[in-house]
Design a protein that fits this description.
Length: 356
Amino acid sequence: MKRSDFDYQLPPELIAQHPLPERSASRLLVLDGPSGVVSHHQFRELLDFLNPDDLLVFNDTRVIPARLWGRKATGGNVEILIERLTGPETALAHIRASKSPKAGSLIHLSREPRGEPGSHRLQVTGREGELFCVASQDGCTLADILQDIGHMPLPPYIERGDESADKERYQTVYAKREGAVAAPTAGLHFTEALLAQIDARGIRRATVTLHVGAGTFQPVREDEIENHLMHREYFEVDESVCEAVRATRARGGRVIAVGTTAVRSLESASRENGEIQPLRGDTDIFIFPGYRFRSVDAMLTNFHLPESTLLMLVSAFAGREPIMAAYAQAIVQQYRFFSYGDAMFITANTQLQGPV
């Protein structure tokens, strides 16, 4: 398929720049996969679309304050986005500067863009592809440095600096395991009260971990989407999740992934025959139309960027034409798009899923 098959025109004013005052006040577009029928709701009505035998699978990753600023010894300004902590004092990072720093270069960190350098320093120790290897040089761990002067890594389409409120709102209420540099945004709509209502209905919950990387915003540059090289992200699916999925299947319930990160985790841990097994490590699974889903029956997700791998994933799940038609309706209905925007509930269109 062509990258252009997944393009659409989005009015810029529909890109949500701030979250709503209340998490569950978002809207919910429901797309019935088998029929392609679209209906419009509020997110707090989600319970109307869940059954007691269902299993909701959440991603418990926690976003770290991964954005840093600093200066090179030559005086040039630098912006750093930590991609992955590799040890207490080391990390892989994206670095933006007028000239890429060489191995051995020191970066003096500051609290704000173009601010005065403080006591924290990083040394560039090498490269791994497009990423830079960096190490703390002041006796502090990278985690301590990030907590001290790091900023929340808001997505590039949010055209403002991070604010104090983002420390909470660009985080799910159930976030636990630190390591993501982007939020699993479908989960941002849940409140403790809504989770309690889900539990009261007898609907089961399970938790996976996938530390979302900055590569989630990486554009597809290949015209033929099959040629796209997918980024890698660390994930974990433990035996308790596998048991919950098996039990759901046995009682005739649905496995509902909360977010594309939960989808990618479950599908990465599933064999071709549909059997799920405990697994941890890096995944670079790329799901696009023609993929046959093995573990997921329905999903919650936000709206995704044009020509993105995530738009391709949801198109594989419900069909490209129904997804693009639903997006067209969402634009007409003035839904809010992307990370701080509204949500979709999608059930699988099994007729459009081809061979693995």
